[in-house]
Design brief:
- This protein has about 375 residues and is of the alpha+beta class.
- The chain has helices spanning about 5-40, 60-85, 90-115, 140-150, 180-185, 380; strands at about 130-135, 155-160, 165, 170-175, 200-205, 210-215, 225, 240-245, 250, 250-260, 265-270, 290-295, 305-310, 320, 335, 340-350, 355, 360, 375.
- It is globular.
- The N and C termini lie far apart (about 80 Å).
């Protein structure tokens, strides 16, 4: 064999060996990166360290992010292998590696915001009140967009005399009584200028059925209607007082009624054109699992109660939460913050307001001096 042929063969062998080494290293990096991402989905709330034994599977959006990283790693391997035979591309590979680091950093940051509990949060009117208006949710942020979708299946329960028929298509809601006047509130109470309209909250649990707290119906069903879309329209506090008839439903019968759980499900006068909420088994959740609630506190326009957790999940029939709930929240669906499935129905809680000698202010109940807000397990109802 000539020296020239030997040199040529040796060069090809060396290149092949180097190529395999680089490929193996890239594969190792990819596997390590995948494991890193999956490890990040051992979920926890801000108040609790990870102490779970069985780690729940990552949600679809998390798997999608990991797959994006894997795809990018595969492309990186292809570029490097191609560059082994073209020395002039080596410089571009270094640039690509810099870009790759920025790319992966962006994905990790995105994961932090979209999936992991220690996310950037929406804040309520005070450190003790995490209720926010529906309009403050940003549809461009995935978890907030999901809550907006769930919001469409939650409505306010109103006594019929609060609605007056304008014409064949529209009702007008009586919004003449403010929260401040109704409860003789002090000047620093949030949402005090908003109108009190409803007596409770209900959510869609079937194609023509809605579920709520039983005690909401103090009178016969014919005295009530269920109204969708009663929300604040803008930052100036304008409320939608004109309601289209398509958003007003009449409960006609009780198809489920349980005194012990304080839960009832009613059949409506027609089929709903909104989605039925999905639910999951609440008994499998840990204490401090993060939750949120959609409803009408004190009968005012709809609010989302965020930044709360399960306080005690030991009872087989119900659990307690740190949700900021009020009387009109009775019947509100409580959601698992991670999956956005309903896990319970708010039925009772601590005292809403307390008298300070001249007016009523919000009762701030600090742990461990209160039980929390009581939520009946949805799995007991649906099963």
């Amino acid at each position: 064999m000539s020296q020239q042929l030997k040199d040529s063969t040796g060069t090809r062998v060396n290149k092949l060996t180097d190529s395999l080494k680089v490929k193996l290293k890239a594969q190792e990096e990819k596997n390590e990166l995948k494991q890193l991402k999956l490890n990040r989905f051992n979920f926890f709330s801000p108040q609790k360290a990870v102490q779970t034994i069985e780690v729940p599977p990552p949600p679809p959006q998390a798997i999608e992010k990991v797959e994006q990283i894997e795809l990018y790693q595969e492309k990186r391997v292809e570029i490097i292998l191609e560059s082994m035979s073209q020395e002039f591309q080596q410089e571009s590979v270094i640039v690509d590696e810099d870009f790759e680091a920025e790319y992966e950093k962006a994905i990790i940051e995105d994961l932090d915001k979209e999936v992991i509990y220690n996310t950037e949060r929406l804040r309520g009117p005070s450190r003790y009140d995490s209720r926010v208006e529906v309009r403050t949710l940003n549809p461009d942020i995935k978890w907030q967009r999901t809550i907006l979708k769930k919001n469409k299946s939650v409505a306010i329960i109103v006594e019929k005399e609060k609605l007056s028929l304008i014409n064949e298509q529209f009702y007008q809601i009586d919004i003449s009584t403010s929260l401040e006047n109704f409860y003789n509130l002090c000047g620093n109470v949030p949402f005090k200028n908003q109108p009190v309209v409803g007596v409770g909250t209900a959510f869609i649990s079937g194609s023509n059925q809605m579920t709520t707290a039983k005690h909401v119906f103090q009178r016969n069903l014919e005295h009530y209607v269920i109204v969708f879309g009663f929300e604040l329209l803008n930052k100036n506090g304008i409320v939608e007082a004109i309601v289209h008839k398509k958003n007003v439903y009449t409960p006609i019968s009780k198809v489920y009624n349980n005194d012990y759980y304080d839960v009832t499900t009613v059949a409506l006068d027609r089929e709903l054109n909104r989605p039925v909420l999905t639910w999951e088994n609440s008994k499998l959740l840990d204490d401090r699992t993060e939750v949120y609630m959609i409803g009408h506190p004190s009968g005012i326009p709809k609010k989302i109660a965020l930044n709360a957790g399960i306080l005690d999940n030991s009872n087989s029939h119900y659990f307690y939460t740190t949700l900021d709930s009020f009387q009109g929240n009775s019947g509100s669906p409580v959601f698992n913050r991670q999956t956005h499935n309903v896990i319970g129905i708010l039925v009772s809680g601590e005292l809403d307001y307390k008298f300070n000698g001249s007016c009523n202010e919000i009762n701030v109940c600090k742990l461990p001096y209160c039980e929390g807000e009581k939520v009946v397990r949805i799995d007991n109802i649906m099963n």
